[in-house]
Structures are given as C-alpha cells and as structure tokens.
Design goal:
Strand order of the largest sheet: 30-31-32-33-34-35-36
Number of strands: 36
Oligomer: single chain
Structural class: mainly beta
C-alpha cells in the first residue's frame, strides 16, 4: 500500500508520467504522485543536494562537497536500486552544476569540468575566461556566453539574444520551459524565446542595489532592495508575486505540485484489546479508539468515551525494533502465538498462529481505514493504492475478526 510521507524536501523533480521523486532532509529518497507515496531508499549520503534529474529509469542527484569530502553523484535505478555513489574529483569549488542525460558539467571559478553520469569518471575540462552569471551562463567583455558539452570537452559558445528593452542583469533557465530567461535592469522578467514579460513590481524610483536570486528550478525569483527593506518573491508559473516576509504566500492553503502526500494517521499506540465484537486500540494518555464498520461500506476509527472498564490485552514494548525499511516495529503476541506488529508509519499487522488464516494489515488512517489481506482483498481510499480498487471493507473486517477469535 502507498502511505503518507512526512519530512522536508531537499530537492524534488517531477517526471512526464506525473511521478515526483524527492530527496528528503532525513536522507530518504521517496516517490509519489497525487496519492500516497513510497520510500525507495534511506540512509543516503549526507550533504546538500544541488542538482537532481531523472534519465530514463535512473534518478541522479549531486551532493555538494566540503573541505573534507568531494561532491558526490548519487544514482538510483528504478524501481528498487541499489543506491550507487561516485566521488567527483576536484569539484568542491562549485558555482553551479548542469546535469544532462550523459554528462555532468561542474562550473567553477577558473574552469568547467565534465564527468560521466554513468560512473562519475572525469571526461575533460575547459578554462573559464569569463565572469559567471548564473547556471550555465557567463558574461564576456562584449558578449554573453553559455557552456555546453561538445562530445569531447566543455566548450563556451556565444549566446544570441533578441533586442532587449533593458540590459540583462541575470540570465537563467527554467526546468521544462524553453529559454533562456532574463531578469532585466528595469526589474522585468523576460523570455528570450517568446518575448513575454512578467513585471516583478520593483519600485521605479528606488535607490540602492537591486539583488536578484533565482531559486532552484528557475520557476521562482526573489528580488530585494536592502536600502529600503523591500522584498518580493515571484512565482513564474502562477505569475504571482508577494512579500516573502508575509505569514502566507498565495495559495498556501492548497497543495502545490511537489508537496508531500499527507493524511492523518494514528501512529502512537500503547496496546489493544478485543472489545464489543471488534478491536479497541489504546492510545496515549488513556485515549481509546474503536474500529467499526459503517454498514459494511467502510472501516473507521472512532473514539471511545471514558470511563471505560478496559485494560489492554496486549501492550507494545517501549523500545521498538529497527528495520531495514526506514521504519521501526513494536511487536506483541498472545500466548497462542498470534502476533501483532505496530509499524511506526501507522500500520497495524496481524499474523495468526494458524497458518491457514490470512494475515491482515490496517492503515490507521483518519476518516477511513485502509486494509489488506494476504489473499489480496483490500479496502479504503484510492490514496493508499494509487489506482481504482474493488473496496471490500467487510471482507477485510471479517478477516481481522477471524484472527482475533483464533488468538
């Protein structure tokens, strides 16, 4: 089953099929679409992600280096890996990185170095005679340039630009959008391909230096005038601008592309008991929850109001067991040998001591509980399956009751 994901995104990319792959700041690689997600790998190499790209069925990303560690190329063949990691020699002093289908260009102050995407080996370098602007773009004495791979070495090429209403301040690329794009001295953002412009709203009669920062994939740009404490963040996709110091950005109440899939899930349980023909779950501070069906149409968790003459039949140990799958498990069992596993991701798994009795897993999700049996019967919202399913809550519920009765 697919599950909600929690954490902070370090970098995310969206493929043409709608799948997002993200590296999280807790060193996990996850994938998801408009429903729940999967953890593909955990305990990844540390460091700040500075570039990410999917090439065919392999996801690649670059980790920044430090004084003690060179930058690294990390690769993960879909769907199951394993993780591959390669050091990029002599590339710690990085201004920018361009990750293409078969080559990585590491842009430094004095040179541009090329590495193979397949294994991180060095392919060549070119001395940099220009002043770096952003990404792959440079400013020469009378001409702008960009760096490209010519099949054998990095090479600087002159950048043809249309007639502009003002001089360029920054030249940049936007992921998935033809370009290059430019920030002009008058504060306008312009496509060099279509000539379309977006006004950033920079005060016309301003004094002081205008600072421009292009954020990550080029779809957001931050402007600031420190002399007058003025700032604006411009979303080029939505063509919106707002003060980043405000408490909210436009549309913050809505999920945006790249947001992690979320669903409230009950994760903290101290024990459970059979009660009233169903399952009662002991949460923190004496709160009890009851699993019940609604006319056989779905399974739900409801709160049981105190006072209750209930004591847990099984209690979960305080210290969980670590696993190789990025979660931890609490295990409890009845004297018969029937076992219950509490997964830290909000799953409860039941395994009867009688091998003929199918196993059952429940996602303790708010609103509607998702379920699965080892016979392949399922129930619950599409969020937990990623496809239209034949939901059979009554079959899953009866499977659970059979385990509880046999325990």
């Amino acid at each position: 089953m697919l599950l909600p994901l929690a954490g902070k995104i370090d970098w995310a990319i969206c493929s043409k099929d709608g799948t997002t792959h993200a590296v999280l700041n807790d060193r996990r690689l996850v994938s998801y679409r408009e429903w729940g997600g999967r953890v593909l790998a955990e305990n990844l190499p540390g460091g700040r992600t500075i570039c990410m790209r999917r090439v065919g069925d392999v996801v690649h990303w670059i980790k920044a280096g430090s004084r003690l560690r060179p930058p690294r190329l990390i690769s993960f063949p879909l769907p199951a890996g394993p993780v591959r990691r390669f050091d990029l020699e002599g590339g710690a002093d990085m201004l920018a990185v361009q990750l293409h289908d078969d080559v990585i260009l590491v842009i430094r102050t004095n040179d541009v170095r090329a590495f193979a995407v397949s294994d991180g080996r060095a392919l060549g370098k070119a001395i940099n005679p220009y002043r770096w602007i952003h990404g792959r773009y440079f400013r020469g004495e009378n001409q702008f340039h960009y760096v490209a791979w010519d099949g054998s070495a990095p090479r600087f090429e002159p950048l043809p630009l249309p007639k502009l209403p003002a001089a360029p301040r920054v030249i940049f690329d936007r992921e998935g959008v033809p370009g290059p794009w430019l920030v002009l001295e008058n504060g306008c953002i312009m496509s060099s391909v279509t000539g379309a412009t977006i006004d950033a709203g920079v005060p016309r009669q301003h004094s002081g230096h205008l600072c421009v920062q292009v954020l990550r994939d080029g779809h957001e740009i931050q402007f600031s005038l420190p002399a007058i404490s003025w700032r604006r963040l411009v979303d080029l996709n939505a063509e919106q601008r707002w003060d980043p110091a405000a408490s909210e950005r436009p549309g913050d109440s809505m999920a945006r592309p790249g947001d992690l899939p979320r669903w409230n899930v009950l994760r903290a349980l101290e024990g459970l008991a059979r009660w009233g023909g169903t399952l009662a779950l002991a949460g923190r501070k004496g709160h009890w929850h009851r699993l019940h069906g609604e006319g056989g149409e779905r399974l739900r968790l409801g709160e049981l109001s105190p006072p209750l003459p209930l004591q847990p039949e099984l209690t979960f140990p305080v210290q969980p067991k670590a696993t190789d799958w990025g979660c931890s498990l609490h295990e409890a069992s009845w004297p018969s040998g029937t076992k219950v596993f509490l997964d830290s991701r909000g799953l409860l798994h039941f395994k009867s001591h009688q091998r003929s009795v199918p196993e059952v897993s429940l996602v303790l999700s708010d609103g509607e509980v998702a379920g699965w049996t080892s016979e392949g019967r399922v129930c619950g919202p599409v969020f937990f399956f990623g496809r239209t399913i034949v939901s059979e809550p009554q079959v899953v519920f009866q499977g659970l009751l059979r385990i509880l009765q046999s325990a």
